[in-house]
Amino acid sequence: MVGVAAALIIAQLVLRGWVAFSGFFYWDDFILIGQVSRYPLWSAELLLTSHDGHVMPLAIALTWLVTKAAPLSWPVAAAVLVGLQLLASLAVLRLLVVLMGWRARLLGPLLFYLFVPLTVPAFAWWAAAVNALPLQIALAWVSADAVMLARTGRRRYAVSGAFVFAVALLSFEKSVVVLPVACVVVALSAHVAGRPWRDAVRRGGALWVAGGAVLLAWAAVFLLVIQRPRGLTGPEDPGALLSRALSDGLVPALFGGPWRWERWQPATPWADPPGLAVLICWLLLIPLAAWTIRSRARVTAVWLCAAAYAIATIAPVIVLRDGPGTAALLLQSMRYFADFAVIATIGLALILQARRSAAAREGSSPDRRGSDTSDARPRTAGMLPRSRFRCRTGSIGGSQPSERLRTGPTSRIPRDLPTSTLFAIPAVLFLLSSVISTITFTRSWEPSPARTYITGVRATLPAAADAPLLPQEVPWNVLNPLAFPQNMTDHVLAPIATPTTFAAATPRLRMITDTGEIVDAHVWWNRAITPGPEPQCGHRVRGSTSIPLDGPMQIRDWTAQINYFADRDGRIAVSFEGDTETVADVRQGLNTVYVRLLGGGDALRVRPLEPEQSLCVGVGPVGVAAFPR
Protein backbone atom coordinates (compact mmCIF):
# COMPACT_ATOMS: atom_id res chain seq x y z
CA MET A 1 0.00 0.00 0.00
CA VAL A 2 2.69 2.47 0.99
CA GLY A 3 4.66 1.62 -2.13
CA VAL A 4 1.66 2.06 -4.41
CA ALA A 5 0.78 5.41 -2.83
CA ALA A 6 4.39 6.57 -3.16
CA ALA A 7 4.47 5.46 -6.80
CA LEU A 8 1.30 7.42 -7.56
CA ILE A 9 2.71 10.56 -5.95
CA ILE A 10 5.98 10.21 -7.86
CA ALA A 11 4.05 9.76 -11.11
CA GLN A 12 2.04 12.89 -10.34
CA LEU A 13 5.20 14.90 -9.65
CA VAL A 14 6.74 13.77 -12.92
CA LEU A 15 3.65 14.88 -14.84
CA ARG A 16 3.36 18.13 -12.89
CA GLY A 17 7.06 18.76 -13.34
CA TRP A 18 6.60 18.58 -17.09
CA VAL A 19 3.66 21.00 -16.82
CA ALA A 20 5.64 23.42 -14.67
CA PHE A 21 8.86 23.44 -16.69
CA SER A 22 6.89 23.89 -19.92
CA GLY A 23 5.53 27.20 -18.69
CA PHE A 24 6.97 30.59 -17.80
CA PHE A 25 6.23 33.67 -15.74
CA TYR A 26 2.92 35.21 -16.75
CA TRP A 27 1.10 38.51 -16.20
CA ASP A 28 0.68 39.05 -12.42
CA ASP A 29 3.98 37.28 -11.88
CA PHE A 30 5.78 40.29 -13.35
CA ILE A 31 3.82 42.68 -11.15
CA LEU A 32 4.82 40.70 -8.06
CA ILE A 33 8.43 40.36 -9.23
CA GLY A 34 8.71 44.09 -9.89
CA GLN A 35 7.22 44.79 -6.48
CA VAL A 36 9.54 42.51 -4.52
CA SER A 37 12.56 43.96 -6.35
CA ARG A 38 11.91 47.43 -4.88
CA TYR A 39 11.62 46.64 -1.17
CA PRO A 40 13.48 44.67 1.50
CA LEU A 41 11.81 41.48 2.68
CA TRP A 42 10.57 42.70 6.06
CA SER A 43 9.16 46.04 4.92
CA ALA A 44 5.49 46.80 5.51
CA GLU A 45 5.29 48.30 2.01
CA LEU A 46 6.04 44.85 0.65
CA LEU A 47 4.28 42.42 2.98
CA LEU A 48 1.23 44.48 3.91
CA THR A 49 0.18 45.53 0.45
CA SER A 50 -3.02 44.74 -1.41
CA HIS A 51 -2.47 43.12 -4.78
CA ASP A 52 -5.60 43.04 -6.93
CA GLY A 53 -7.76 42.50 -3.86
CA HIS A 54 -5.40 39.97 -2.24
CA VAL A 55 -3.39 40.34 0.97
CA MET A 56 -0.84 37.52 0.94
CA PRO A 57 2.39 38.33 2.81
CA LEU A 58 3.76 34.77 2.76
CA ALA A 59 3.15 34.41 -0.97
CA ILE A 60 4.92 37.75 -1.46
CA ALA A 61 7.79 36.62 0.78
CA LEU A 62 8.19 33.39 -1.20
CA THR A 63 8.28 35.40 -4.43
CA TRP A 64 10.92 37.68 -2.88
CA LEU A 65 13.11 34.72 -1.91
CA VAL A 66 12.85 33.06 -5.33
CA THR A 67 13.54 36.36 -7.11
CA LYS A 68 16.60 37.12 -4.99
CA ALA A 69 17.95 33.59 -5.34
CA ALA A 70 17.45 33.37 -9.10
CA PRO A 71 16.19 36.57 -10.77
CA LEU A 72 13.56 35.83 -13.44
CA SER A 73 14.71 32.20 -13.55
CA TRP A 74 11.71 30.05 -14.38
CA PRO A 75 13.42 26.67 -13.70
CA VAL A 76 13.91 27.67 -10.06
CA ALA A 77 10.33 28.90 -9.76
CA ALA A 78 9.04 25.71 -11.39
CA ALA A 79 11.02 23.58 -8.95
CA VAL A 80 9.42 25.47 -6.06
CA LEU A 81 5.97 24.79 -7.53
CA VAL A 82 6.73 21.07 -7.73
CA GLY A 83 7.89 21.16 -4.11
CA LEU A 84 4.66 22.83 -3.01
CA GLN A 85 2.68 20.24 -4.95
CA LEU A 86 4.55 17.48 -3.14
CA LEU A 87 3.57 18.99 0.21
CA ALA A 88 -0.06 19.20 -0.91
CA SER A 89 -0.08 15.59 -2.09
CA LEU A 90 1.45 14.35 1.16
CA ALA A 91 -1.07 16.36 3.18
CA VAL A 92 -3.94 14.78 1.25
CA LEU A 93 -2.42 11.31 1.72
CA ARG A 94 -2.20 11.95 5.47
CA LEU A 95 -5.85 13.00 5.56
CA LEU A 96 -6.93 9.89 3.68
CA VAL A 97 -4.98 7.65 6.05
CA VAL A 98 -6.68 9.37 8.99
CA LEU A 99 -10.12 8.93 7.44
CA MET A 100 -9.71 5.47 5.91
CA GLY A 101 -6.61 3.80 7.33
CA TRP A 102 -3.99 2.05 5.21
CA ARG A 103 -6.34 0.07 3.01
CA ALA A 104 -6.67 -0.55 -0.70
CA ARG A 105 -9.67 1.67 -1.28
CA LEU A 106 -7.64 4.67 -0.10
CA LEU A 107 -5.98 4.59 -3.51
CA GLY A 108 -9.17 5.72 -5.27
CA PRO A 109 -9.48 9.14 -3.58
CA LEU A 110 -5.70 9.54 -3.70
CA LEU A 111 -5.62 8.86 -7.43
CA PHE A 112 -8.44 11.34 -7.92
CA TYR A 113 -6.65 14.18 -6.13
CA LEU A 114 -3.26 13.51 -7.67
CA PHE A 115 -4.39 13.58 -11.29
CA VAL A 116 -7.67 15.51 -11.48
CA PRO A 117 -7.17 18.36 -14.03
CA LEU A 118 -9.08 20.71 -11.74
CA THR A 119 -5.83 21.71 -10.02
CA VAL A 120 -3.62 22.03 -13.09
CA PRO A 121 -4.35 25.63 -14.26
CA ALA A 122 -3.73 27.08 -10.79
CA PHE A 123 -0.57 24.99 -10.40
CA ALA A 124 1.01 26.11 -13.69
CA TRP A 125 0.84 29.86 -12.98
CA TRP A 126 3.15 31.13 -10.24
CA ALA A 127 0.88 33.92 -8.96
CA ALA A 128 -2.06 31.49 -8.72
CA ALA A 129 -0.06 28.57 -7.34
CA VAL A 130 1.36 30.48 -4.36
CA ASN A 131 -2.27 31.05 -3.35
CA ALA A 132 -3.87 27.76 -4.36
CA LEU A 133 -1.31 25.23 -3.13
CA PRO A 134 -1.06 26.51 0.48
CA LEU A 135 -4.87 26.46 0.59
CA GLN A 136 -4.95 22.84 -0.57
CA ILE A 137 -2.28 21.91 1.97
CA ALA A 138 -4.21 23.58 4.77
CA LEU A 139 -7.57 22.05 3.83
CA ALA A 140 -6.08 18.57 4.05
CA TRP A 141 -3.76 19.08 7.02
CA VAL A 142 -6.15 20.97 9.29
CA SER A 143 -9.01 18.58 8.51
CA ALA A 144 -6.80 15.63 9.48
CA ASP A 145 -5.73 17.40 12.68
CA ALA A 146 -9.36 18.12 13.53
CA VAL A 147 -10.38 14.48 13.12
CA MET A 148 -7.40 13.28 15.17
CA LEU A 149 -8.14 15.82 17.91
CA ALA A 150 -11.74 14.63 18.11
CA ARG A 151 -10.58 11.01 18.31
CA THR A 152 -7.68 11.32 20.73
CA GLY A 153 -8.12 14.63 22.55
CA ARG A 154 -4.42 15.39 22.13
CA ARG A 155 -3.89 19.14 22.14
CA ARG A 156 -0.90 18.96 19.81
CA TYR A 157 -3.35 18.54 16.95
CA ALA A 158 -4.99 21.83 17.92
CA VAL A 159 -1.61 23.57 17.91
CA SER A 160 -0.60 22.03 14.59
CA GLY A 161 -3.93 22.83 12.96
CA ALA A 162 -3.96 26.44 14.16
CA PHE A 163 -0.40 26.98 12.93
CA VAL A 164 -1.09 25.59 9.44
CA PHE A 165 -4.31 27.62 9.33
CA ALA A 166 -2.34 30.79 10.07
CA VAL A 167 0.20 29.98 7.36
CA ALA A 168 -2.61 29.45 4.86
CA LEU A 169 -4.30 32.74 5.78
CA LEU A 170 -1.03 34.59 5.23
CA SER A 171 -0.82 33.02 1.77
CA PHE A 172 -4.41 33.45 0.54
CA GLU A 173 -7.45 35.11 2.11
CA LYS A 174 -9.72 32.35 0.79
CA SER A 175 -8.17 30.16 3.46
CA VAL A 176 -10.89 31.44 5.80
CA VAL A 177 -12.79 28.37 4.59
CA VAL A 178 -10.25 25.98 6.12
CA LEU A 179 -11.65 26.02 9.66
CA PRO A 180 -15.32 25.58 8.63
CA VAL A 181 -14.30 22.77 6.26
CA ALA A 182 -12.38 21.00 9.04
CA CYS A 183 -15.40 21.29 11.31
CA VAL A 184 -17.68 19.82 8.65
CA VAL A 185 -15.23 16.97 7.98
CA VAL A 186 -15.28 16.05 11.68
CA ALA A 187 -19.07 16.16 11.72
CA LEU A 188 -19.47 14.14 8.52
CA SER A 189 -16.91 11.51 9.50
CA ALA A 190 -18.94 10.87 12.65
CA HIS A 191 -22.26 11.12 10.83
CA VAL A 192 -21.47 8.53 8.15
CA ALA A 193 -20.26 6.19 10.90
CA GLY A 194 -23.62 6.49 12.66
CA ARG A 195 -22.33 8.39 15.69
CA PRO A 196 -23.48 11.73 17.12
CA TRP A 197 -21.79 14.42 15.07
CA ARG A 198 -22.35 17.10 17.71
CA ASP A 199 -20.22 15.19 20.20
CA ALA A 200 -17.45 14.86 17.63
CA VAL A 201 -17.50 18.58 16.85
CA ARG A 202 -17.49 19.39 20.56
CA ARG A 203 -14.36 17.31 21.09
CA GLY A 204 -12.56 19.43 18.50
CA GLY A 205 -13.25 22.60 20.47
CA ALA A 206 -9.61 23.35 21.21
CA LEU A 207 -8.90 23.71 17.50
CA TRP A 208 -11.98 25.83 16.89
CA VAL A 209 -10.96 28.22 19.67
CA ALA A 210 -7.30 28.44 18.58
CA GLY A 211 -8.24 28.77 14.92
CA GLY A 212 -10.86 31.39 15.74
CA ALA A 213 -8.26 33.50 17.55
CA VAL A 214 -5.96 33.24 14.53
CA LEU A 215 -8.83 34.23 12.26
CA LEU A 216 -9.74 37.30 14.32
CA ALA A 217 -6.13 38.53 14.39
CA TRP A 218 -5.77 38.02 10.66
CA ALA A 219 -9.11 39.70 9.89
CA ALA A 220 -8.10 42.84 11.78
CA VAL A 221 -4.99 43.24 9.61
CA PHE A 222 -6.76 42.23 6.41
CA LEU A 223 -9.53 44.80 6.79
CA LEU A 224 -6.98 47.56 7.40
CA VAL A 225 -4.92 46.71 4.33
CA ILE A 226 -7.35 45.43 1.72
CA GLN A 227 -8.15 47.59 -1.28
CA ARG A 228 -10.60 46.79 -4.03
CA PRO A 229 -9.08 47.54 -7.44
CA ARG A 230 -12.44 48.69 -8.78
CA GLY A 231 -16.04 49.11 -7.68
CA LEU A 232 -18.32 46.14 -7.31
CA THR A 233 -20.70 45.54 -10.18
CA GLY A 234 -23.70 43.28 -10.31
CA PRO A 235 -23.35 40.32 -12.68
CA GLU A 236 -25.63 40.53 -15.67
CA ASP A 237 -26.72 36.88 -15.59
CA PRO A 238 -25.37 35.01 -12.55
CA GLY A 239 -27.43 31.92 -13.35
CA ALA A 240 -25.86 31.55 -16.77
CA LEU A 241 -22.38 32.10 -15.34
CA LEU A 242 -22.95 29.46 -12.68
CA SER A 243 -24.23 27.05 -15.30
CA ARG A 244 -21.16 27.58 -17.49
CA ALA A 245 -18.81 27.20 -14.54
CA LEU A 246 -20.38 23.86 -13.67
CA SER A 247 -21.01 22.46 -17.14
CA ASP A 248 -17.87 23.70 -18.91
CA GLY A 249 -15.49 23.56 -15.98
CA LEU A 250 -16.18 21.77 -12.73
CA VAL A 251 -18.32 18.76 -13.70
CA PRO A 252 -16.20 17.60 -16.69
CA ALA A 253 -13.07 18.02 -14.56
CA LEU A 254 -14.44 15.55 -12.00
CA PHE A 255 -14.34 12.92 -14.74
CA GLY A 256 -10.90 13.87 -16.04
CA GLY A 257 -12.02 16.62 -18.41
CA PRO A 258 -12.26 19.04 -20.09
CA TRP A 259 -10.01 17.33 -22.69
CA ARG A 260 -10.00 20.47 -24.86
CA TRP A 261 -8.77 23.98 -24.07
CA GLU A 262 -9.05 27.27 -25.92
CA ARG A 263 -6.69 30.20 -25.66
CA TRP A 264 -6.42 33.65 -27.15
CA GLN A 265 -3.11 35.30 -26.36
CA PRO A 266 -2.46 36.74 -23.89
CA ALA A 267 -5.30 35.12 -21.90
CA THR A 268 -4.84 31.91 -19.95
CA PRO A 269 -6.35 28.71 -21.39
CA TRP A 270 -9.99 28.04 -20.57
CA ALA A 271 -11.93 24.82 -20.62
CA ASP A 272 -13.87 24.12 -23.81
CA PRO A 273 -15.22 20.57 -23.46
CA PRO A 274 -17.26 19.05 -26.29
CA GLY A 275 -20.99 19.42 -25.74
CA LEU A 276 -21.59 15.68 -25.89
CA ALA A 277 -18.91 15.09 -23.27
CA VAL A 278 -20.56 17.60 -20.95
CA LEU A 279 -23.89 15.81 -21.33
CA ILE A 280 -22.29 12.44 -20.61
CA CYS A 281 -20.61 13.82 -17.49
CA TRP A 282 -23.93 15.07 -16.11
CA LEU A 283 -25.57 11.75 -17.00
CA LEU A 284 -22.84 9.99 -15.04
CA LEU A 285 -22.76 12.36 -12.06
CA ILE A 286 -26.48 12.40 -11.27
CA PRO A 287 -26.97 8.60 -11.29
CA LEU A 288 -23.70 8.19 -9.37
CA ALA A 289 -24.98 10.50 -6.65
CA ALA A 290 -28.33 8.71 -6.55
CA TRP A 291 -26.69 5.27 -6.43
CA THR A 292 -24.32 6.17 -3.60
CA ILE A 293 -27.14 7.80 -1.63
CA ARG A 294 -29.20 4.61 -1.99
CA SER A 295 -26.39 2.14 -1.39
CA ARG A 296 -24.47 3.94 1.35
CA ALA A 297 -25.99 5.07 4.62
CA ARG A 298 -25.91 8.73 5.63
CA VAL A 299 -24.02 10.07 2.59
CA THR A 300 -26.70 12.55 1.49
CA ALA A 301 -25.10 15.14 3.75
CA VAL A 302 -21.74 14.54 2.07
CA TRP A 303 -23.18 15.32 -1.36
CA LEU A 304 -25.04 18.38 -0.07
CA CYS A 305 -21.95 19.80 1.61
CA ALA A 306 -19.81 19.24 -1.49
CA ALA A 307 -22.41 20.94 -3.70
CA ALA A 308 -22.69 23.86 -1.28
CA TYR A 309 -18.91 24.33 -1.28
CA ALA A 310 -18.81 24.29 -5.08
CA ILE A 311 -21.46 27.01 -5.32
CA ALA A 312 -19.84 29.03 -2.53
CA THR A 313 -16.52 28.86 -4.40
CA ILE A 314 -17.97 29.98 -7.72
CA ALA A 315 -20.17 32.80 -6.36
CA PRO A 316 -17.36 35.23 -5.35
CA VAL A 317 -15.82 35.00 -8.82
CA ILE A 318 -19.18 35.86 -10.38
CA VAL A 319 -19.60 38.87 -8.09
CA LEU A 320 -16.05 40.20 -7.66
CA ARG A 321 -14.58 39.43 -11.10
CA ASP A 322 -17.56 40.34 -13.21
CA GLY A 323 -16.99 42.18 -16.47
CA PRO A 324 -18.01 42.06 -20.13
CA GLY A 325 -17.16 38.49 -21.13
CA THR A 326 -14.61 38.28 -18.33
CA ALA A 327 -16.25 36.29 -15.54
CA ALA A 328 -17.24 33.39 -17.80
CA LEU A 329 -13.69 32.89 -19.09
CA LEU A 330 -12.26 33.20 -15.58
CA LEU A 331 -14.64 30.53 -14.33
CA GLN A 332 -13.82 28.26 -17.24
CA SER A 333 -10.11 28.68 -16.51
CA MET A 334 -10.85 26.61 -13.36
CA ARG A 335 -8.01 28.10 -11.33
CA TYR A 336 -10.45 29.80 -8.93
CA PHE A 337 -11.80 26.52 -7.57
CA ALA A 338 -8.76 24.28 -7.59
CA ASP A 339 -9.36 23.75 -3.86
CA PHE A 340 -12.56 21.87 -4.71
CA ALA A 341 -10.29 18.96 -5.66
CA VAL A 342 -9.53 18.50 -1.95
CA ILE A 343 -13.22 18.79 -1.05
CA ALA A 344 -14.19 16.21 -3.67
CA THR A 345 -11.42 13.90 -2.43
CA ILE A 346 -12.73 14.16 1.13
CA GLY A 347 -16.27 13.49 -0.07
CA LEU A 348 -15.18 10.42 -2.02
CA ALA A 349 -13.30 9.07 1.00
CA LEU A 350 -16.30 9.56 3.29
CA ILE A 351 -18.64 7.86 0.82
CA LEU A 352 -16.31 4.88 0.56
CA GLN A 353 -16.09 4.73 4.36
CA ALA A 354 -19.86 4.84 4.88
CA ARG A 355 -21.69 1.66 5.83
CA ARG A 356 -23.90 0.01 3.30
CA SER A 357 -27.49 1.14 3.63
CA ALA A 358 -30.33 -1.13 4.76
CA ALA A 359 -31.76 -1.10 1.23
CA ALA A 360 -28.45 -2.26 -0.22
CA ARG A 361 -28.11 -5.03 2.38
CA GLU A 362 -31.64 -6.24 1.71
CA GLY A 363 -30.86 -6.41 -2.00
CA SER A 364 -27.72 -8.49 -1.50
CA SER A 365 -27.63 -12.29 -1.53
CA PRO A 366 -27.57 -14.16 1.81
CA ASP A 367 -23.95 -15.18 1.46
CA ARG A 368 -22.93 -11.56 0.94
CA ARG A 369 -24.80 -10.14 3.93
CA GLY A 370 -22.60 -9.02 6.73
CA SER A 371 -19.56 -8.85 4.47
CA ASP A 372 -19.60 -5.07 4.12
CA THR A 373 -16.09 -3.77 3.70
CA SER A 374 -16.91 -0.31 5.09
CA ASP A 375 -16.43 -0.06 8.82
CA ALA A 376 -17.13 2.85 11.08
CA ARG A 377 -13.46 3.43 11.65
CA PRO A 378 -10.39 2.94 9.43
CA ARG A 379 -8.95 -0.54 9.82
CA THR A 380 -5.39 0.43 10.47
CA ALA A 381 -5.03 -2.86 12.28
CA GLY A 382 -4.95 -4.52 8.89
CA MET A 383 -1.30 -3.54 8.69
CA LEU A 384 -0.45 -5.87 11.60
CA PRO A 385 0.04 -9.67 11.57
CA ARG A 386 -3.43 -11.07 12.02
CA SER A 387 -2.41 -14.21 13.88
CA ARG A 388 -1.01 -12.19 16.77
CA PHE A 389 -3.26 -9.14 17.16
CA ARG A 390 -6.90 -8.64 17.95
CA CYS A 391 -7.88 -4.96 17.78
CA ARG A 392 -10.85 -3.08 19.11
CA THR A 393 -11.88 0.30 17.69
CA GLY A 394 -13.75 3.06 19.43
CA SER A 395 -15.93 5.89 18.39
CA ILE A 396 -14.46 9.07 17.05
CA GLY A 397 -13.95 10.15 20.62
CA GLY A 398 -13.23 6.74 22.01
CA SER A 399 -16.40 6.53 24.15
CA GLN A 400 -18.27 3.71 22.41
CA PRO A 401 -16.42 0.54 21.40
CA SER A 402 -17.39 -0.93 18.09
CA GLU A 403 -17.35 -4.53 16.99
CA ARG A 404 -14.00 -6.27 16.98
CA LEU A 405 -12.14 -6.46 13.76
CA ARG A 406 -12.00 -9.96 12.40
CA THR A 407 -8.65 -11.66 12.45
CA GLY A 408 -7.31 -14.58 10.54
CA PRO A 409 -6.00 -15.19 7.04
CA THR A 410 -9.38 -14.89 5.25
CA SER A 411 -10.87 -11.88 7.01
CA ARG A 412 -9.75 -9.09 4.69
CA ILE A 413 -8.18 -9.99 1.38
CA PRO A 414 -11.06 -11.88 -0.26
CA ARG A 415 -13.53 -9.18 0.73
CA ASP A 416 -11.41 -6.39 -0.71
CA LEU A 417 -10.86 -8.06 -4.04
CA PRO A 418 -14.37 -7.38 -5.47
CA THR A 419 -14.07 -3.72 -4.52
CA SER A 420 -10.67 -3.45 -6.19
CA THR A 421 -11.98 -5.08 -9.35
CA LEU A 422 -15.07 -2.87 -9.36
CA PHE A 423 -13.05 0.35 -9.23
CA ALA A 424 -10.05 -0.65 -11.36
CA ILE A 425 -11.61 0.08 -14.76
CA PRO A 426 -13.11 3.49 -13.84
CA ALA A 427 -9.82 4.42 -12.17
CA VAL A 428 -7.81 3.61 -15.29
CA LEU A 429 -10.27 5.51 -17.50
CA PHE A 430 -10.15 8.50 -15.17
CA LEU A 431 -6.35 8.44 -15.14
CA LEU A 432 -6.12 8.33 -18.94
CA SER A 433 -8.71 11.07 -19.28
CA SER A 434 -6.92 13.28 -16.76
CA VAL A 435 -3.54 12.81 -18.40
CA ILE A 436 -5.03 13.75 -21.78
CA SER A 437 -6.55 16.92 -20.31
CA THR A 438 -3.27 17.78 -18.61
CA ILE A 439 -1.32 17.33 -21.84
CA THR A 440 -3.74 19.43 -23.90
CA PHE A 441 -3.65 22.17 -21.26
CA THR A 442 0.14 22.21 -21.27
CA ARG A 443 0.28 22.43 -25.06
CA SER A 444 -2.04 25.43 -24.90
CA TRP A 445 -0.16 27.05 -21.99
CA GLU A 446 3.36 26.51 -23.35
CA PRO A 447 3.54 29.29 -26.02
CA SER A 448 4.87 32.30 -24.12
CA PRO A 449 5.67 35.74 -25.56
CA ALA A 450 7.11 36.57 -22.15
CA ARG A 451 9.67 33.76 -22.42
CA THR A 452 10.86 35.10 -25.79
CA TYR A 453 11.02 38.64 -24.45
CA ILE A 454 12.83 37.90 -21.17
CA THR A 455 15.28 35.51 -22.82
CA GLY A 456 16.20 38.13 -25.42
CA VAL A 457 16.60 40.90 -22.85
CA ARG A 458 18.74 38.75 -20.61
CA ALA A 459 21.10 38.06 -23.52
CA THR A 460 21.42 41.64 -24.81
CA LEU A 461 21.18 43.78 -21.68
CA PRO A 462 24.83 43.45 -20.57
CA ALA A 463 26.07 44.79 -23.92
CA ALA A 464 23.94 47.93 -23.58
CA ALA A 465 25.63 49.25 -20.45
CA ASP A 466 27.31 52.22 -22.17
CA ALA A 467 24.22 54.41 -21.76
CA PRO A 468 21.01 54.02 -19.76
CA LEU A 469 17.71 53.05 -21.34
CA LEU A 470 14.56 55.09 -20.94
CA PRO A 471 11.76 53.12 -19.25
CA GLN A 472 9.19 51.90 -21.78
CA GLU A 473 6.16 49.67 -21.78
CA VAL A 474 6.81 45.96 -22.14
CA PRO A 475 4.93 44.25 -25.00
CA TRP A 476 1.17 44.21 -24.44
CA ASN A 477 1.11 40.40 -24.51
CA VAL A 478 3.61 40.32 -21.64
CA LEU A 479 1.78 42.87 -19.47
CA ASN A 480 -0.79 45.25 -20.88
CA PRO A 481 -1.01 49.04 -20.33
CA LEU A 482 -3.82 48.65 -17.77
CA ALA A 483 -1.11 47.61 -15.31
CA PHE A 484 0.75 50.96 -15.62
CA PRO A 485 3.26 51.70 -14.13
CA GLN A 486 3.98 48.05 -13.30
CA ASN A 487 4.16 47.30 -17.03
CA MET A 488 7.22 49.52 -17.51
CA THR A 489 10.59 47.92 -18.19
CA ASP A 490 12.22 49.39 -15.09
CA HIS A 491 9.66 47.44 -13.01
CA VAL A 492 9.44 44.18 -14.95
CA LEU A 493 13.19 43.86 -15.58
CA ALA A 494 14.29 45.17 -12.18
CA PRO A 495 15.65 41.79 -10.99
CA ILE A 496 18.16 41.55 -13.86
CA ALA A 497 18.89 45.28 -14.21
CA THR A 498 21.71 47.24 -12.57
CA PRO A 499 21.16 50.61 -10.86
CA THR A 500 22.28 52.37 -14.07
CA THR A 501 20.36 50.26 -16.59
CA PHE A 502 17.33 52.57 -16.64
CA ALA A 503 17.14 56.32 -16.20
CA ALA A 504 14.75 59.14 -17.01
CA ALA A 505 17.28 60.72 -19.39
CA THR A 506 19.91 59.32 -21.74
CA PRO A 507 22.35 60.64 -24.35
CA ARG A 508 21.53 57.71 -26.65
CA LEU A 509 17.96 56.67 -27.37
CA ARG A 510 17.49 52.91 -27.60
CA MET A 511 14.52 50.66 -27.04
CA ILE A 512 13.80 47.01 -26.35
CA THR A 513 11.90 45.20 -29.09
CA ASP A 514 9.15 42.62 -28.57
CA THR A 515 11.75 39.87 -28.91
CA GLY A 516 14.08 41.42 -26.32
CA GLU A 517 16.64 42.96 -28.67
CA ILE A 518 18.00 46.43 -27.88
CA VAL A 519 18.00 48.70 -30.94
CA ASP A 520 18.46 52.39 -31.71
CA ALA A 521 15.27 54.43 -31.65
CA HIS A 522 13.96 57.88 -32.56
CA VAL A 523 11.31 60.35 -31.39
CA TRP A 524 8.22 61.01 -33.46
CA TRP A 525 7.46 64.63 -34.29
CA ASN A 526 4.11 64.67 -32.51
CA ARG A 527 5.04 68.16 -31.50
CA ALA A 528 8.22 70.20 -31.96
CA ILE A 529 10.22 72.72 -30.00
CA THR A 530 9.81 75.93 -31.98
CA PRO A 531 12.83 77.86 -33.32
CA GLY A 532 14.15 80.29 -30.72
CA PRO A 533 14.47 84.05 -31.07
CA GLU A 534 18.24 84.20 -30.66
CA PRO A 535 20.30 83.63 -33.86
CA GLN A 536 22.90 80.84 -33.69
CA CYS A 537 21.43 79.76 -30.36
CA GLY A 538 17.69 79.31 -30.47
CA HIS A 539 16.35 79.45 -26.92
CA ARG A 540 18.88 80.88 -24.48
CA VAL A 541 18.55 79.18 -21.09
CA ARG A 542 20.20 80.88 -18.10
CA GLY A 543 17.52 80.44 -15.46
CA SER A 544 14.12 78.76 -15.51
CA THR A 545 12.97 79.24 -19.10
CA SER A 546 9.70 78.38 -20.87
CA ILE A 547 10.24 76.95 -24.35
CA PRO A 548 7.07 76.88 -26.49
CA LEU A 549 5.95 73.91 -28.59
CA ASP A 550 4.17 74.14 -31.92
CA GLY A 551 0.94 72.83 -30.36
CA PRO A 552 -0.59 71.43 -27.18
CA MET A 553 0.03 67.86 -25.94
CA GLN A 554 -2.35 65.74 -23.90
CA ILE A 555 -1.25 64.32 -20.57
CA ARG A 556 0.64 61.06 -20.96
CA ASP A 557 4.17 59.66 -21.15
CA TRP A 558 6.30 61.54 -23.75
CA THR A 559 9.93 61.70 -24.83
CA ALA A 560 11.60 65.04 -25.57
CA GLN A 561 14.70 65.26 -27.77
CA ILE A 562 16.65 68.22 -26.38
CA ASN A 563 19.29 69.42 -28.86
CA TYR A 564 21.53 71.79 -26.92
CA PHE A 565 24.85 73.60 -26.76
CA ALA A 566 26.26 73.89 -23.22
CA ASP A 567 29.13 76.01 -22.02
CA ARG A 568 30.07 73.41 -19.38
CA ASP A 569 29.09 70.05 -17.97
CA GLY A 570 26.15 70.17 -15.63
CA ARG A 571 22.53 69.19 -15.06
CA ILE A 572 19.18 70.56 -16.13
CA ALA A 573 15.58 69.95 -15.02
CA VAL A 574 12.99 69.55 -17.79
CA SER A 575 9.20 69.39 -17.43
CA PHE A 576 5.92 70.45 -18.90
CA GLU A 577 4.63 73.62 -17.27
CA GLY A 578 3.60 72.76 -13.72
CA ASP A 579 4.41 69.04 -13.97
CA THR A 580 7.07 66.84 -12.38
CA GLU A 581 10.63 67.66 -13.39
CA THR A 582 13.07 65.20 -14.95
CA VAL A 583 16.76 65.76 -14.23
CA ALA A 584 19.21 65.20 -17.10
CA ASP A 585 22.98 65.45 -17.37
CA VAL A 586 24.38 67.78 -20.04
CA ARG A 587 27.89 67.83 -21.44
CA GLN A 588 29.93 70.73 -22.68
CA GLY A 589 29.52 71.43 -26.39
CA LEU A 590 26.90 70.49 -28.97
CA ASN A 591 24.99 67.41 -27.84
CA THR A 592 21.59 65.77 -27.52
CA VAL A 593 19.80 64.35 -24.50
CA TYR A 594 16.54 62.39 -24.54
CA VAL A 595 14.26 63.06 -21.60
CA ARG A 596 11.20 61.09 -20.48
CA LEU A 597 8.39 63.38 -19.40
CA LEU A 598 5.02 62.65 -17.83
CA GLY A 599 2.50 65.41 -18.38
CA GLY A 600 1.12 67.66 -21.08
CA GLY A 601 0.79 71.24 -22.27
CA ASP A 602 2.03 73.58 -24.97
CA ALA A 603 5.47 74.45 -23.53
CA LEU A 604 8.48 72.88 -21.86
CA ARG A 605 10.25 74.40 -18.89
CA VAL A 606 14.04 74.00 -18.75
CA ARG A 607 15.97 74.97 -15.64
CA PRO A 608 19.78 74.77 -15.15
CA LEU A 609 20.77 73.19 -11.85
CA GLU A 610 24.36 74.47 -11.80
CA PRO A 611 25.26 78.09 -10.88
CA GLU A 612 26.16 80.32 -13.81
CA GLN A 613 25.31 77.55 -16.28
CA SER A 614 24.06 78.61 -19.70
CA LEU A 615 22.94 76.63 -22.73
CA CYS A 616 21.19 77.03 -26.03
CA VAL A 617 18.25 74.79 -27.00
CA GLY A 618 17.38 74.26 -30.64
CA VAL A 619 14.52 72.70 -32.57
CA GLY A 620 13.69 69.08 -31.72
CA PRO A 621 10.80 66.62 -31.55
CA VAL A 622 8.61 65.90 -28.54
CA GLY A 623 6.52 62.77 -28.92
CA VAL A 624 6.50 59.01 -28.81
CA ALA A 625 9.76 57.08 -28.80
CA ALA A 626 9.76 54.34 -31.44
CA PHE A 627 12.08 51.89 -33.15
CA PRO A 628 12.11 50.65 -36.77
CA ARG A 629 10.00 47.52 -37.30
From TrEMBL:
Stretches for region Disordered: 361-413
Residue spans of biased composition, Basic and acidic residues class: 364-378
Keyword Heme recorded: no
Keyword terms of this UniProt record: Membrane, Transmembrane, Transmembrane helix
Transmembrane segments: 78-102, 178-194, 206-226, 274-293, 300-321, 333-352, 422-441
Keyword Membrane: yes
Protein name stated in the entry: Transmembrane protein
Lineage summary: Bacteria, Bacillati, Actinomycetota, Actinomycetes, Mycobacteriales
